[in-house]
Specification:
- The chain contains 17 helices and four strands.
- It is globular, with a radius of gyration of 27 Å.
- A two-stranded antiparallel sheet has the order 1-4.
- By secondary structure, it is mainly α.
- The protein has helices at 10-30, 32-43, 59-70, 87-97, 103-106, 109-122, 132-149, 163-180, 191-216, 220-224, 230-234, 241-270, 274-285, 294-298, 301-313, 354-357, 361-364; strands at 319-323, 328-334, 340-344, 349-353.
Length: 383
Amino acid sequence: MASLPFQLSPFSLLIWVVVAYLVKRITFELTAGAKRRKIILDNGCKAPWVWPRQRFLGLGLMYTVIRDAKQNKFLERSRPGIFNNDGAAWEHSRALIRPNFTRSQVADLDTFEIHVAELIKAIPDNGSTFDLQNLFFRLTVDSATEFLFGKSVNSLQSDDTSDFVHGYEYGTEYMVKSARSGLLLDYVPNRKWRKSREAVWDFADKIIHDAIESQKSRNLEKQNGGRYVFLHEMLKFTSDPYILRSETLNVLLAGRDTTASLLSNTWHYLARRPDIWSKLKAEVDNLHGDKPTYEQIKDMKYLRWVLNESLRLMPVVPSNVRVATEDVVLPLGGGDDGKSPLLVEKGWAVQYTAYSMHRRPDIYGPDCQEFKPERWQYLRPGW
């Protein structure tokens, strides 16, 4: 076994490590560090407010979180696809998906009308109590799968939902739990998770395979009967089964949960505010029982105000994170009061909480905690 041409004592090795660190640090301070200091000086940036360290091992923070949770104030504190890609991969996903969300594509209300009719049929007419939120989630998964794949799972037509629906619901819940655990759950064997994932993939893969074969035999147009199908439009750009499955399931995640949450939250408020219900009903009555067109829905101002107010108080994505790809200065966020410019260094993760932002009295007024659709008549929040 060859030996080193020289011998290093532990002390000498430590000296070399320190020297290497100092060289790296000095180089950084003379280059990127100097650039950042100039940005801070030119823009008057200040460091962000930092949660004060209280008690041993963060017990003060734990106490505060528990207290806020008891007071219902806690929020005041898959696969590759458009929602989990970055950089060039994200741009590619966006280029594939964006043409499919033009006005002419999303304005197809006839297909959605079929599923709304199934929702109404599923509501008991004997005055018994039922879970409306569950029906909303079935509505959105039915309409979303038809829009995406050209084939609905039709979960509203039967209480015995498909393996796809069960697998999708368990899979999304498990992914959230895994993220909260710091991905530690990924190392715990879970047979139900694997079966759920396979059920979702099998459903999508079979439809994608049939669509690709139909495209080869030029029967795709006959297969969808002239209806718009997201998957069939995607096939004009790629026939890679992996990409098709990833992108369609990404859009399903965005379209199903968010829409069902918005509907559930809106009805939560409507059930408690008969005055708002009466105003909304009066606007809908102007249709005289006819099915609305896309243009008519756009012109229903009070309906739009109600949905905006629901999204304000109960945002379907209450919190999100962005990572800086380069040094950037935000106009606010620095200093103890958060009103000074803030330098966000490359690689920093910035989390924002829409739930808290939407309850700011300086933007929405002293009645910001109240459900008040009329505020949107003149409100135009922005920078």
